[in-house]
Design brief:
The chain has helices spanning about 15-25, 30-40, 45-55, 60-70, 90-100, 115-130, 140-160, 175-185; strands at about 1-5, 30, 80-85, 110-115, 165-170. By secondary structure, the protein is an alpha/beta fold. The protein has one domain: 3-Layer(aba) Sandwich (Rossmann fold). It is globular and about 40 Å long. Bound molecules: BIS(adenosine)-5'-pentaphosphate. BIS(adenosine)-5'-pentaphosphate binds near residues 9, 35, 56, 135 and 144.
């Protein structure tokens, strides 16, 4: 199974991807996690990305594509993957089509988790208290939501127009949302 998980910051992409990874036995590729690992390692890329991420802005398309090419070159992606956090704009959507095309692959579904903005803000505030993630500040969250609405929403429309999108209600318990995703990818229809 090859899945692209889409949704606003705090919609539950990372949480559900971790469960899907176990269930589907395919790797979870989170561009946010890959970038945070670079920041933690203090690499050149990490140093470049650190401030951009803390402000809630997008790291450059070129850096992201290089990172993804590198990750997809590993053999564990040959049977499938769950891509979380990419693409975030139309240029990245085109880059993903190109990358998968070169590997003679495509993805099965783009799954969007739908959650109302007030609940997103509430969830991220909860995580900020519990984990203190560097970009979970109110200013950064505002920027991330704005970028999502301006740049990522067109990606969702693009997949919808191409018949690749399935939308899942992301509100409810972790188990409920997980079950809806599994139903959606087995039926190909919107659930919830
Ligand atoms: P990234 O790490 O991708 O962050 P994000 O998209 O802002 O997403 P979040 O991690 O905030 O939310 P999520 O949807 O994964 O929700 P989660 O499961 O954690 O990106 C970070 C930064 O990296 C970007 O801002 C950018 O700078 C850079 N970057 C990454 N990809 C990039 C790209 N492609 N191009 C350019 N730059 C890029 O859940 C959130 C909280 O809610 C958790 O506390 C969780 O426990 C809780 N929760 C989850 N589900 C539920 C539920 N059903 N009920 C109640 N609580 C729930």
């Amino acid at each position: 199974m090859r899945l692209v998980l889409l949704g606003a910051p705090g919609s539950g992409k990372g949480t559900q991807a971790a469960r899907l990874k176990e269930h589907l036995q395919v790797p979870h590729i989170s561009t946010g996690d890959l970038l945070r690992a670079e920041v933690a390692a203090g690499s050149k890329l990490g140093l470049e990305a650190k401030g951009v991420m803390a402000r809630g802005e997008l790291v450059s398309d070129a850096i992201l594509l290089g990172m993804l090419e590198d990750r997809f070159s590993r053999s564990d992606t040959s049977n499938g993957f769950i891509l979380d956090g990419y693409p975030r704009n139309l240029a990245q959507a085109a880059a993903l089509d190109g990358l998968l095309g070169r590997m003679k692959q495509s993805f099965d579904y783009a799954v969007k988790l739908r959650v109302a903005t007030e609940l997103l803000v509430e969830r991220i505030a909860g995580r900020a208290k519990a984990e203190g993630r560097a970009d979970d500040t109110p200013e950064s969250v505002r920027t991330r939501l704005q970028i999502y609405n301006n740049q990522t929403a067109p990606v969702i429309d693009y997949y919808r127009q191409h018949g690749q999108l399935t939308v899942v209600d992301g509100v409810g318990s972790l188990d409920e949302v997980f079950t809806r995703i599994l139903e959606a990818i087995s039926s190909g229809h919107e659930v919830g």
